[in-house]
Amino acid sequence: MKKKIYLASPNMSKEGYEQKYVKEAFDTNWIAPLGENVNKFEEELANYVGIKYAAALSSGTAAIHMAFKALDVKQGDIVFCSDLTFSATVNPIIYQNATPVFIDSERDSWNMNPKALEKAFEKYPNPKAVIVVHLYGTPAKIDEIKEICDKHNVPLVEDAAESLGATYKGKQTGTFGKYGIYSFNGNKIITTSGGGMLVSNDEERIAKVRFWATQAREKARHYEHKEIGYNYRMSNIVAGIGRGQLKVLDERIGQKTDIYNNYKEAFKEIEDIEMEPIPENSKPNHWLSVITLKESSNVKPLDIMEALEKENIESRPVWKPMHMQPVFKDYDFIKVEEDAVSKDLFERGVCLPSDTNMTKEDQERVINIIKNLWK
Ligand SMILES: *Cc1c(COP(=O)(O)O)cnc(C)c1O
Question: What are phi and psi of 113, to 5 degrees?
């Protein structure tokens, strides 16, 4: 069996920072709940992205859920949501019994189309919130989107699960809206094995989220509850891994950027292949390197995925758009082009191995297998 190459796998620091923080937690028997690592991880991440407050949670999905709860999203409310994303962006809308309306992508960043967002406001003038995704680590046209939301007085949530460290006009994704969320799931740019973070400049709301996330326990010696709570807090062990990983985030972004540039250079000569574009004003974290194949290409995405699979190499289609998902078929979808852009990207896209554990030779292997399909 040939050496396995992953799409994106955990990559702990060679310095062993993560183990040091985890060991500290062991040595003080502060395994759980909460503790020094959780507080410090919140503080350090908030500092990194340049925001005031952060709440460390059990997953990115939990963070999205808490953002909607903090905005009082509830039954009867409409939430505008990027169409091209992972279902974890949408599910918390449903947890809150609200109604998603999906917004199509534009071609510069593959993210929410500001024109489609405007159109959605014409049809539904009073949504409760907007959630925009920075897909694959590429910033959305966030200042246009923010402006539209501000004009309509509707709060913006940024799903920056895939884009930690990516910037737009020098400002970190996740810090433009009322709330931002990050994920530390196993294949994200940095990982804690599993976990998430909610960030905001609203101190009171972040405190409230920490309260809900620890079962809504009132300050009383006995167990007093006035609200429904959740068990969504991050453990002190997990946070220790996060603190260590944060130290190598910039290094990982550098490695991911190199991977993207290597693919770009290698595929220059193949006209059918286009790299995911880097939009103006944006510095992506290049979490995944994604290509699209021209409509006219005889080689199709499935051919690439199958050829790589045969060689023990992982790849994956572009996310299947939410408006095409059976579970969300009853919800509205707003687009401005005749044919949905999200669907087109889904049909022509392939996510290539973007693992920072890949050697230069590993990446050469991937490139050669793909190039051979055009021989
Ligand atoms: C990974 C991901 C999430 C969910 O994060 P988890 O930590 O796995 O719950 C949400 N949105 C997007 C776009 C993601 O890629």
Answer: -80, 115
Predicted local distance difference test score (pLDDT) of residue 29 = 81
DSSP string, 69-105: HHTT--TT-EEEEESSS-GGGTHHHHHTT-EEEEE-B
Contacts of 241 (CB under 8 A, 6+ apart): 12, 18, 21, 22, 191, 192, 193
- The pTM of this model reads 0.97
Residue 32 has pLDDT above 90, yes or no: no
* Mean pLDDT along residues 119-125: 98
Give the dihedral of Cα atoms 4, 10, 12, 18; nearest 10 deg: -150
**Residue ranges of the chain assigned to CATH 3.90.1150.10:** 249-372
Pairing of strands 196-200, 53-57: antiparallel
Band (pLDDT 50/70/90 cuts) for residue 333 is very high
83, 110, 162: which to mutate for ligand 1, most atoms within 8 A of CB? 162
Q: C-alpha angle 20/46/258, rounded to 5°?
A: 75
Taking the domain 17-246, which CATH number applies?
3.40.640.10
To test the ligand 1 pocket, which listed residue (64, 66, 95, 159) has its Cβ within 8 A of the most ligand atoms?
Answer: 159
Contact 162, 109 (CB under 8 A): no
pLDDT tens digits, one per residue of 64-91: 999 999 999 999 999 999 999 999 999 9
Half-sphere exposure of 206 (CA within 13 A, CB side): 21
Q: How big is the chain by its Cα radius of gyration, in Å? A: 21
Q: What's domain 249-372's architecture?
A: Alpha-Beta Complex (3.90)
* 246-256 pLDDT per residue, tens: 999 999 999 99
Instruction: Quote the CA–CA distance of 143 and 133 in Å, as a whole number.
Output: 13
Question: Which part of the chain has CATH 3.40.640.10?
Answer: 17-246
Any residues with Cβ below 6 Å from ligand 1, and which? 59-61, 85-86, 88-89, 133, 159, 161-162, 183, 185, 196
Mean local confidence (pLDDT), 265-273? 97
